[in-house]
Specification:
109 residues; 39% strand
Length: 109
């Protein structure tokens, strides 16, 4: 089970968009759980200009074998031209929680 799971990080412009994308991912069986963290400020360079925007962050818990489906769903529905979609492997975690991710995704496939 090590490295079978990942967390996908994705910023969104607001909580309404975040809630919509989170529901889409969970209902489609691409993610077991999505946390929405509001109130971020992102500073970045876009098209040669320094930008600073208020955003929210999606923390998406899934399996690594579901990453392509997560990415495809986000790309299809995300309002940004170039959304942040970054997967971070889960190298360790509470075994019962990781098993819950597996079981949740198995029942929604």
């Amino acid at each position: 089970m090590p490295d079978a799971h990942c967390i996908v990080l994705c910023t969104v412009p607001d909580t309404d968009t975040g809630n919509r994308l989170a529901a889409l991912l969970v209902e489609a069986g691409h993610a077991a759980c999505v946390n929405l963290v509001p109130g971020l400020t992102s500073t970045y360079r876009w098209q040669g200009k320094l930008q600073q925007d208020r955003e929210s962050l999606l923390i998406i818990k899934t399996r690594r074998d579901r990453f392509d489906a997560v990415q495809k769903a986000l790309l299809a529905q995300h309002p940004y031209e170039l959304p942040e979609i970054i997967a971070v492997p889960i190298s360790a975690g509470l075994p019962a929680y990781l098993t819950w991710i597996d079981q949740t995704l198995e029942t929604t496939s």
